[in-house]
Amino acid sequence: MIWEDLNENLIMPDLKAGSSDEVFQQLGGLLVSEGYCKSSYVQALTEREKDFPTGINMGNIGIAIPHTDKEHVIKGAVAIGVLKEPVHFYQMGTNDENVEAKLIFMLAVKDPKEHLVFLQRILMVLQDQEVLKQLIETKNKQEIINIIKEKEEQL
């Protein structure tokens, strides 16, 4: 379950960033400062995003699920950012389709086998437009965890 691994210290419900690089610096920097990732993590996110975009258009709301290689990770975690204003990402699998991301699920993946399972669970939760709407509207960290928990329990 995703919600069991969530930590309020890794949730930014009012993230202000003007670019994906600023998202990486703030949210990735949080993973570094909280001891989940090495100092190389933020730069590795930036580099990986150029070759493997992580934006996903989920109907009315764009999301991004940035992550990088395990050598930059100390222990697994998920950081969540809800952006005040959407930030430009490219659609996963392309380098020319824009996604204006409002919600970021940044992964610190230590075990590559868990990566795909975790990604699938996140996408199952986020396919629900009502859940997406609730996540971007709340400013309460615990409420974000509760919304995800409630949806996961329905799956």
TrEMBL record:
Q: Where is the PTS EIIA type-2 domain?
A: 4-151
Instruction: State the coiled-coil residue ranges.
Output: none
InterPro entries xrefs: PTrfase/Anion_transptr, PTS_EIIA_type-2_dom, PTS_SugarTrans_NitroReg
Which CDD domains is this protein grouped with? PTS_IIA_fru
Cross-referenced Pfam families, in alphabetical order? PTS_EIIA_2
Q: What is this protein called?
A: PTS galactitol transporter subunit IIA
Recorded source organism is: Anaerostipes butyraticus
Source species taxonomy: Bacteria, Bacillati, Bacillota, Clostridia, Lachnospirales
